Amino acid sequence: MTTPLPPGIQLEKVDDRIMTLNVGPQHPGSGHMRLIIKVDGDYIVSCDPDPGYVHRGEEKMAEYRNYIQNIPHLERPVIHDSSNILYPYCLAVEELLGIEVPERAKYIRVIAAELNRCIYTLYWLAIYGIFLGHSTMFMWPAGDRELFIDLLEAMSGARVTHAYLVPGGVRNDLPANFEERCLRQVDYFEKRLKEYQAIFYKNPILISRTEGTGILSRTDAIRLGTTGSVLRASGVNYDIRKKEPYDVYENMDFETVVMKEGDSYARSYIPYLEMFESCRIIRDAIRKMPKSGSVRTKLKPNPKGGNDEVYKRVESGRGELGYYIVSNNRPEPYRVKISVGSFRNLICMPYLLKGELLGNMPSVYWGLNYWPVEADR
Amino acid sequence: MSSENEKDEQPSDTVAAHSEDTESLSKDEAKKFYEEKGIDFSPDSPIHPKPIPPFEKSISDKIASKFNSKINVDYVRESRIRVSTKKEDILDVAFFIRDELGYDHAVSVSGVDYPDSKEIEVVYHLGSYTDEKLASQVLTLATRVPREEIPNPGKDSSRMTSLREVFYSVEFHERECFEMFGVYFEGHPDNRRLLLPEDWADIPPFRKDFKIKGR
Fold it and tell me: What is the tally of structural domains in chain B?
């Protein structure tokens, strides 16, 4: 007589061949999420993603606070891309309240957003490196990221969670000599980026582990509604900055990076190439920015939204990031929905991992540009 | 001293700004206002009609001519069209939007709870990757399902047809909507919980009657 098993627990028989593995929920590099993977030998039979370990109810919290009080907590899902997650919120609130943003503030926002995109991508790249056992690729981006963190610290006063973008503009003006300092660091960074190519992207070990794994065809990428670098790696030329330009992106000189392969290598290469484009945008924005002027439109105290709804979106480090805000003549929003790229790309995971080698799981998983904390919100 | 005066004055300013809201004109007043200006006023038209850009108008005309009385098409703002429909018709409308208009993926699916009218609104935001002209457009497809005072997710009348057959990308979004609002999607292959813990035993948390502790 054996003791009864606790509810929810099953014993696997030896002759089943199929073994269930729990990958996670603890992850050393990112937030917590679990993949329930069934394997037959070395091959993955099925994968069932189980997010929700870092669900904080940001959308619910936003219903209790007014439009200004919402700023700092809404950037928490991706603290290393905090400008880009606040950007659509500011655009949406400006649309609701009918606020005009000063010209100089629009350029400063673009600079902050692109600096933050680099910060995010470098962090992502560092973890990509350590996922594949390449510890130099962990150290280099993590170190170079400090350059941009210092720049944003000079802009806003905080290193990571700076809440710099606010409805109506940015919180404060740029410090003296910021332009020269920023250009110098961008020049240095571009030199460093070329070294990444030699040590990481032309590394035969990386190529053998990522090329041809987890192929997502163009049709599937569209059907599954993927976004960001995953979409562009499958040959779809779609970038919100080009297709629905916000603020001054239509004046900026940059290209959308598209690759047709649709494999893990393309998905790892596109964010890297986009950092060059970010550098171009930063240079261009500094050149075209008005040299003086107001940076923030003052709001009335406790602004109310009217009976309205708005959907605004930007291109973040992980793809399209949109805010759907419903207001009902109250200082607090009636409903806030954050539509994030990570959550939309999650649906690819069961598709890409089916039939894949278990050893290719880390590169496929991290190549999806997935940030668990943002996906759970 | 002057700063204190400012603080006192500012709130009253905002109250004034909101009380002179022109949308609160009664219909007779509005009619008089429009007649004085020589504008044709029909009682059914919204009091402040926004001019629709030609491209958005061509899309909304296409949907309106196909389904005329079954749906309600609004122009919200630039690149944003809103289509509201009954939940019985949503599958037909969604197939039309995909096949005839060229929208191919769902950007987000959100629920909005309206306890006063005992309804939950399910809002699909749809976009297009394949049609270059639609790239900047987001079409809002909204429908309302009944809302029960004491929810019993999956077993009560808060249910509608899943759009997964039409837009494959809604799969996880609808799972999230089911657990957060208790709206059951018929025909969805996998109606399990996604973000909430397995042992969650309270009402769906994004409903308005679920209060955060201490607030």
Answer: 1
Q: Which residues of A touch B193 (CB under 8 A)?
A: 52
Question: What pLDDT digit, counting tens, does each position of B12-36 carry?
Answer: 444 444 444 444 566 677 667 666 6
Closest CA to B71 of B159, B138, B141: B141
CA distance B80 to B139: 6
- Closest residue on chain A to B139 (Cα): A311
Question: How much is the mean pLDDT over chain B?
Answer: 77
- Euclidean distance between CA atoms B104 and A246, whole angstroms: 23
The pLDDT assigned to B4 comes to 44
pLDDT over 60 at A234, yes or no: yes
- Beta carbons of A55 and B195 less than 8 Å apart: yes
pLDDT digits (tens, 9 = 90+) for A169-225: 898 888 888 889 999 999 999 998 999 988 888 888 888 888 888 888 889 889 888
ipTM attached to this prediction: 0.85
Distance from CA of B88 to the nearest CA of A (A): 24
Buried b (16+ CB within 10 A) or exposed e, B99-133: eebbbbbbbbbbbbbbeeeebbbbbbbbbbbeeee
Which residues in A lie closer than 8 A to residue B206 (C-beta atoms)? 59-60
CA–CA separation, A188 vs A200, rounded Å? 19
Nearest CA in chain A to B127: A225
Kindly state whether residue B146 falls inside one of the protein's structural domains: yes
The CATH number of A55-376, from 1.10.645.10, 3.40.50.300, 1.20.1270.220, 3.90.550.10, is 1.10.645.10
Residues 6+ apart with CB under 8 A from A311: A92, A322, A323, A324, A325, B80, B125, B138, B140
Candidate from B17, B105, B215 with C-beta closest to A222: B105
Structure confidence by residue, pLDDT tens digits, B31-77: 676 666 555 444 444 445 567 777 878 888 888 888 877 788 877 78
Structural domain harbouring B155: 54-186
* Span between the terminal Cα atoms of chain A, in Å: 47
Average pLDDT over residues A250-255: 88
How is chain A split into domains, by residue range? 55-376
DSSP conformational letter for A357: B
